[in-house]
Design goal:
alpha/beta
């Protein structure tokens, strides 16, 4: 399990960043893009329009042929959460049995309420799902700035092998087997980052921001515990680490989306044409929390705002007028 040939399916900013990171680790990387023009441009300029000014590493080879990606020893699916099933299904006849499929999307499938690993297990039953998540921005990783993430697989041997194949002096994966905990951290933090952005956009102050992140983390832990996550995973890079990063800077798309909402921009314009995964995850996260009697008032407030059930001010009031209780 040395994984010399690795495919990255999805050539958005995060896909390009991960392709560069893998090439720096000495892997031969096939970077698949759906758009033929994008593939041609990357070949011509050795640069992606999604990350202008950042060159593709020499070990990265763009392609529009999905069969080339499917023939690799391991694949990273770097597509939006709600598009994961389609991407996985398209690979069904192209990947060999037991091929590791490393999921890099952060979300929960709407309608089915399935976690990302469950989606891949349904669409690609012959493969082995794994999860890569943690506090990371595409531009930082693409440039080779120091980054640490969590890489979880069903067994420790595979997790260790993937971490060894992916890791370099600038990209450090910590291996784990708690796949559910890793994917819950990534999904929940996006919703909470929208709330943190709203606090910033409404100019509610640093004290409110700190309270939001702390109480939001309590919600993440309650949800994760209810769905079988390990405590050490939730307090690690893919849980607390990713939450802190996403709730603290406009580099986070979800934070920026929330900040625009807080400043009075309508939801259909707040994203600025960029994907904010938390906007698609909020309602299903709240539904799944209710199914197991998990109290998630911040996530519920975000969902209500996005669904048009509450205004920003009404959502804030609903949180501030909750009954007093012990912290926990």
């Amino acid at each position: 399990m040395t994984f010399q040939r690795i495919a990255v399916v999805g050539a958005g900013a995060w896909g390009v960043a991960l392709a560069n990171a893998l090439a720096r680790a000495g892997r031969s990387v096939t970077l698949w893009a759906r758009d033929a023009a994008a593939v041609e441009a990357m070949h011509a300029r050795r640069e992606s329009l999604r990350l202008p000014g950042i060159k593709l590493e020499t070990g990265v080879q763009p392609t529009g042929d999905l069969a080339e990606a499917g023939a690799c020893e391991a694949l990273l699916l770097v597509v939006p959460a709600q598009a994961l099933r389609e991407a996985a299904t398209s690979l069904h006849d192209l990947v060999a049995p037991r091929t590791p499929i490393v999921i890099c999307a952060k979300g929960i499938e709407r309608g089915t309420r399935l976690f990302m690993s469950e989606v891949v297990s349904e669409a690609l039953p012959q493969t082995v799902p794994a999860i890569l998540s943690g506090p990371s921005f595409a531009a930082d990783v693409a440039r080779g700035l120091p980054t640490a993430v969590t890489l979880a697989a069903p067994d420790d041997a595979l997790a260790c092998a993937l971490a060894a194949a992916f890791g370099s002096t600038s990209f450090r994966p910590y291996h784990a087997t708690d796949m559910r905990g890793v994917e819950i951290g990534g999904a929940a933090k996006n919703v909470l980052a929208i709330a943190a952005g709203i606090v910033a956009g409404r100019k509610l102050g640093a004290s409110a921001a700190a309270a939001l992140v702390t109480r939001g983390f309590a919600e993440l832990v309650r949800f994760g515990t209810a769905y079988g996550a390990r405590p050490e995973t939730l307090t690690g890079l893919s849980g607390l680490g990713d939450l802190v990063l996403s709730c603290s800077t406009p580099q986070s798309r979800n934070f920026s989306f929330g900040a625009a909402l807080g400043a009075g921009v309508t939801a259909d314009r707040a994203s600025g044409g960029k994907l904010a995964e938390g906007a698609f995850t909020a309602s299903v996260l709240v539904e799944m929390a209710a199914a197991r009697n998990v109290d998630m008032p911040i996530a519920a407030a975000v969902s209500a705002v996005l669904d048009g059930k509450l205004s920003i001010d009404e959502a804030i009031e609903s949180l501030l007028t909750r009954p007093f209780r012990a912290e926990g």
